[in-house]
Amino acid sequence: MSDFSRWPSVLVRLARGDTGLMKALNALRRAIRRGTLDDVAAVVGAMGAAERRAVGEQMPALLKAVRKEYRWIDRDQASRLLLAGAGTISGPAAAAAWVCRAELRSWGGPQAETAARTVAKVLKVRSPEWRADFTRRVAERMDGRRRDEPDTLLWHLVDRLARDAGDGPPPGEAYLLGWLMWGPPPGATDGDPFLEALVPRLFEADLVGERLRRELTANPPQRTRLADLVRLAGEGRLGREALLDGCLGRMLRGGRDGDLRWFAALHDRLEPTVSEAEARLRDHLRLLPTAPVSVAEMAFRQVQRVDEASALDGASFAEVAEALLFRPEKRLVRAALTWLNKTARTRDRVDATLQAVTAAFAVEDLVLRERAVKIAVRHAPKASEQARDAVRAAAADLPADLRVLVAECCGPVDAAPAGPPPVPAPPPFVPQPRPAPITSPAELAEEVNAVLAGYAEHPLPVLERLLAGITEQARHDADATRRALKTVVPEWARDYPNAAHGGGWVNTFSAVLQAVSAVLFPEHRSAAPGDAAREAFLHGREIFAEYYSDPLPSRFISWRVHAAVHAIGRAPTLLATPTEANGQIDPDVLVHRMALLERAGFEPDESDLEQALLRIPREIDPGAVARARALASPAAKTLAERLAAGALPDPVVTCSARTLPRPGRFSAPPYGHRDLPTARVLPSIVMPEDASPITTRLCRLPVHDEWTCIPAGHIRGDITSWPFLFPSHREVAAAHLLPFLPDWTESRHGQGAALLSLAEADGPTGPATAHALAYGLAARHKQERSAAVDALLVLSARAHLPAAELGAAVPALLAMGEIKLNRVVDALTDAATAGAHADVWTIVRTALPDLLPAPGRRPATGLADLVALGARTAETTRARASIPALAALASRGGTSRLAREAARLHTLLTT
């Protein structure tokens, strides 16, 4: 049998009666199956124009045939298919769409460059106009935001075609970013004919600075794009003026510090002359108020150079002082005060300096405030009466000791009238809106398509809502549901492993695809409802394993997904789908679902029933209990008993610092093994007597030496979903999160989102929630830390925040080396700024006795800031307290910032 006999029937019909075309098709198929890129190029090159056009029209059918035969297309087959389509498809738009297919370009490195070179060689038979149109379309389809390999091939192809055409570099940010990554390496750009055209575009593309910021720490530093630009500017190949203007223009457009730091460094490395800085003074002044710190420091250096050469005019001086003294960064305020003090008399602007320096009288930092006062006192004798009056007026809000300093040189200072300031409150808690059920096959198809369009993980409520929608729509109108889903499901879904066939963890993408496959391909459904997943949860040998084992909450989620997929086509609904955003279920809705299942003669899976019982709210309408008792199925009787008794009684959760039996080892590829700390704060849970065996198993935590097997870094499953398992018992969810949080403070694993879900749940809080919050507030990444602050504010607004326990957790974890105090202080400062002054003061007051150093001991980094935050919140809440450790530190005196902040706080609390 010839190779041709295995091609789609449409190709067979096309080739009948045309022996030449049949030979060409067979040769192309053999080259795609077992040949090389050169073999495919040779076959395509030997075709006539009519043969190429005929084959090109059927390339989608050819791709489908190869995919059906091999199921998965490997890299080599993909490259050969891409080349065949590029060489045969007639229109430039269709050819560009073909080479941009994700499944045909999913590789990088040398293979991408080789493939691009071969494709460009095959395309030489096309007209110049065709190649230009094709190049433009491919360049437009590239996504410059991606760093991964698939766009490597597209960039090399576009680059090769553009250089062969000799018309200059293609437009667009994606090509420029590709040139930075895959173009001539630093040091070899001199001979690049695209250089002059691409350099000005560096200052126009938003992502350039983010891509190049690693150059600032490159070793050796001369092998960078930045060093290349400086060298070429020095040699006269590039214009200095254009580079300086480009840097300033990009920085004036704004952005994050990481996006602009590279441009600030390039500006500095170009070493502008005084005349060049003076010509751009207006731009530097515009950067001072709001630019990121690195940019503002660069601009301030240039302003100082201009001022040294020729004194700034009065308006520019006032603009500089106002911009810097109102910045939140201490080092910028400190630098501005130093400059004001230094130039007050040398530039003959004492009055202007006094007017400016009074802005720093209101800063939170006590050291900076004292420095500003001392500058005013120093220069007041040379100032006019009007300037001294301004200092006296601004000093009214200063503490008494600083008012005395001002009065000695400027005259009596009247203190501002005291009155009880209103105590701020955190923003009120507004529950998220209820998740709307999916009500039609069209809506279901749209939601499924949004998940299948990417591999991103989604929270558990998103997955549960989709599984419920698939189950209900497939039961309500099976034919319409199949028709709608066929439009969004990929062709290879029929061969995708069904969820009911295995017991492993499944992500959102695979779970939804398996559920859709159960609707479209019912012959693939298994007779067993995920027995492997059930067995893995109920009888798994270990609670934690080295790396790839699933913690019990993840195993339970997997079991429920398997059971839900098995129920599609059999059950009218799923029992445990949340009706509230925090994961709880309205009891009336729960009873209604149970009635639907009973009428359909379907007994819910025990995982579905157990999850539903765990999601019962803490307050239950008696009417729902009566309606549940009217049902007769075994599951309905279990539900009625739980509704009558109320939500599961709260398990007892405790936390204690424990010394592990032996140093644990865990695997964290690619970083290898490292020892687990021998001491950790570990939770324990004591379940109520009437808890079911499944709930008891779900709530189980390691005991004794099982703690030495806690995996670090990654675990299978999404921990942000765990609070949705226990929406009425947040302390249980916090206890399950707690073992994983210590190793995640330096990375991003969604711990901030998990804490926010925890805060929006219900139930009492205690030590587990407090310790989990402490880890979140100490997260390295701002995004995770901000989410932890949001969680603190939600708990504070709901009067659920365990503030005292959080205050005790911070010094305990700090002593164990688990967290960094300065990060916690930054997060608490944000919470206080948002209005949680009272709770933040409680946290600080509880933490201080264990944090203040004994004589001769070095204080923790950030402790002075914590004491200052305590003074701020104590003053706002008009707190009074006796803290012996604080009194002892204040009595020792000293000139350090910690000593002065401690004395200030002690005075506030005791007078």
- Computed structural class: mainly alpha
**Low-pLDDT runs:** 1-17, 498-504, 543-548, 662-675
Helix content: 55-70%
The termini sit apart by 101 Å
Number of beta strands:
4
Mean pLDDT: 85
Placed side by side, the strands forming the largest sheet appear as 1-4
Strand content: under 5%
Largest sheet: 2 strands, antiparallel
Number of helices: 47
Cα-atom radius of gyration: 34 Å
User: What is the approximate shape?
Assistant: flat
What does it look like?
By secondary structure, the chain is an all-alpha fold. Helix content is 59%, strand content 2%. It contains 47 helices and 4 strands. The strands form 2 sheets. A two-stranded antiparallel ribbon has the order 1-4. A hairpin with a 5-residue loop joins β2 and β3 (673-675). α44 (837-851) crosses α45. The chain starts with 8 loop residues before the first helix and ends with a helix. 46% of the residues are buried. Residues 1-17, 498-504, 543-548 and 662-675 have low confidence and may be disordered.
